[in-house]
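Question (not urgent): is this output format expected?
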Amino acid sequence: MEDDGKPLLGSIQAGDYYSDQTDSLDPRQRRPFHVEPKNIVEDSAQERVSAEASVLNSRVHYYSRLTASSDRLLAPPDHVIPPPEEIYIYSPLGTAFKVHGKDGAAKNPSIVTIFAIWNTMMGTSILSIPWGIKQAGFTLGIIILILMGLLTLYCCYRVLKSPKSIPYIDTSDWEFPDVCKYYFGAFGQWSSLLFSLVSLIGAMVVYWVLMSNFLFNTGKFIYNFVHNVNISDSEFGTNGTDRVVCPYPDLDPHRNNVTIYLGDNSTGTAVFDHWWSKTNTIPFYLMILLLPLLNFRSASFFARFTFLGTVSVIYLIVLVTIKAFRLGFHLEFHWFHSTKLFVPEFRLLFPQLTGVLTLAFFIHNCIITLMKNNRNQENNVRDLSLAYLLVGVTYLYVGVLIFAAFPSPPLSKECLEPNFLDNFPSSDVWVFVARTFLLFQMTTVYPLLGYLVRVQLMGQIFGEHYPSFIHVFLLNVLIVSAGVLMARFYPNIGSIIRYSGATCGLALVFVLPSVIHMVALKRSGELRWPSACFHSLLILLGLANLLGQFFM
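Got this back:
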């Protein structure tokens, strides 16, 4: 009883309340109203609110009972709701608390929004861009990269604008699956969820393959350094301090061409190689570390290390610049016919690059959330375009420099690996640092991806994110098993990225945004044949992109 006189809500710092991207008050818990300045509780004694505040609060209650808050037809008019600077948090006991903080708290300026999008898109795909350019041909690869960037940018723009095309409903807190549900019912919601899970699980499989690779090479570097082992990673490679190797000159991904020059420690090295194998043992060792981490209820601890992604990408750019400067450019232009050392400028394998780029430019399932944090909403389109430009320039820079600097002769351009770091020996110190950075970064991001999969799937099926430990554990075992199997039997990240990218891109990049836009235009009577033809062409391109992965 002695607590009855205390306010239910104390002073709130804006940074605490707006912890993520929420920028509005929850109508189920707090109601906006006007109160005279003398009645605002700061650090002074509590005072009762004015009669004007009580009348306004009753008025808001009245409007809220007329209809659901999502229906704008009977929503409270503007003159009823106070301006933002006069919104306070109201306790049922009659005390008002102003939300402290500067204007635009928890809102990001344009430059922060642009780099947030850049950081989110900069994933494992950057390691496969040089390989994709090699598959398409140098000239055609550059053209495709630019065109895919423009196409995915437009489709992302359509996703960003899709909630605003819905009339008479407040869509300020909607995500793209909500838009799909509005237009297509449960089918739209479940299809968007399914393809979103494909992108997430595909990324987790790629992460597992890469973590196995990085852990193997990191352990190999440390072992060779400690035991003073002089190792040649392949029979095919250049000489000098900046050595480049061709791990699989016969294009057999299961061959392990390793030539070791040892003294009397050959037995110990053989034992180490037996227990430290990239495909036979390392993928299983990772289970001991990562499977328990996936079962955490919250992923907040791992979210603190997301800055490592930016550090890793910046270091990769520096590494690529240094390697290109030291190796120089090695280019010859053969437009349609390959030679022993060079690939043609235009190749029929180009769908492999389009599949990789679909995932490389994929941010469509979370762009609405990212843009909600933008301080100036009128600049959303401009900031999105600049972010895509920055991403495209980064991919071009890394892809072109690695392809051009790859030493041909003596090596063939066909030796470029789906993970371009594999073209450098494990004894390379610069590459060792890059692999260590990426290994630690992926170890912290992997549980975050698992958490997103769990939240989307469990929330949709059971209505809660952590129904029980057994449910979560079984889901995580299935996800981890997929990664282990791929790392064991098919550790080709280029193919994994292109298949998963083309699959999720078919729905979330090409089909759903285009169909939703055409349906919205048709309902408003504004659909014209040029728009219908263009968006139908986008759908056909998405379908061709997926089919091309199986025939090329």
